[in-house]
Amino acid sequence: MQNQWPESLLAKAALIRLIALDVDGIMSDGKLYFSATGDELKAFNILDGLGLKQLIAAGITVAVITGRKSPLTEKRMRDLGIPHLVQGREDKKAALQELVSTMNIRPEAIAYMGDDLPDLPALTFAGLGITVPNGYWLVRQHADYCTRAQGGNGAVREACDLLLSAHGKLDAALAPYLGPDQEAGT
């Protein structure tokens, strides 16, 4: 992925101290699955999980803001060590503003990743708006970056790599997985 991102995008991403993510359509494929007994099922991509752990290890705060309440989402975020989970909030911009007001983080230091109209106000409020190719057209039109990967299929990992690269920390995040004589090639 050498030189994957334009310099203007990397400059914006270098300012980011917090990324806030939607769940359905971003961390999952956006489909709602129910068992015959009515239990909700949700699939999360393992690539995204490791990317989020790498961000946290690199000192970038991760938050999740979702309009739905789901015990599955709560469990996944707990497993990933994501301390900031806001569920059941349709007004995601207000939720994001409330969250960052306690952290003293300015809008230009926030990345927001979402795929549908409820995400649009938060995405345009943030200094870096990220979406996915399977997101709603108007959201794609207003985002600073649209990932190559689809939501639920590694798009979050791509955004994590972007932020790590912009902060000069991607090679260090990848180094433990390479042999001593290999380079990441980022």
UniProtKB/TrEMBL annotation:
Q: What is this protein called?
A: 3-deoxy-D-manno-octulosonate 8-phosphate phosphatase KdsC
- Complex formation: Homotetramer.
Task: Record the organism.
Answer: Marinobacter metalliresistant
* PANTHER family reported for this sequence: HAD SUPERFAMILY MEMBERS CMAS AND KDSC, N-ACYLNEURAMINATE CYTIDYLYLTRANSFERASE
Q: Which NCBIfam families match?
A: KdsC-phosphatas
Query: Catalyses which reaction?
Result: 3-deoxy-alpha-D-manno-2-octulosonate-8-phosphate + H2O = 3-deoxy-alpha-D-manno-oct-2-ulosonate + phosphate
GO: which molecular function terms?
hydrolase activity
Organism domain of life? Bacteria
Q: Which SUPFAM superfamilies match?
A: HAD-like (SSF56784)
What family does this chain come from, according to its entry?
A: Belongs to the KdsC family.
Q: Which UniProt keywords apply?
A: Hydrolase, Lipopolysaccharide biosynthesis, Magnesium, Metal-binding
What does it do?
A: Catalyzes the hydrolysis of 3-deoxy-D-manno-octulosonate 8-phosphate (KDO 8-P) to 3-deoxy-D-manno-octulosonate (KDO) and inorganic phosphate.
Does the record bear Transmembrane helix in its keywords? no
Per its Swiss-Prot or TrEMBL entry, what cofactor is needed?
A: Mg(2+)
Q: Where is the signal peptide?
A: none
Residue ranges crossing the lipid bilayer per the database entry: none
Q: Which Pfam families match?
A: Hydrolase_3
Which EC class heads this enzyme's classification?
A: hydrolase
Point out the coiled-coil segments of this chain: none
Spell out the InterPro entries in the cross-references. CMP-NeuNAc_synthase, HAD-like_sf, HAD_sf, KdsC_fam
Q: Does the keyword Magnesium apply?
A: yes
The family database entries (Gene3D superfamilies) matched by this protein are listed as: HAD superfamily/HAD-like
Q: What is its EC number?
A: 3.1.3.45
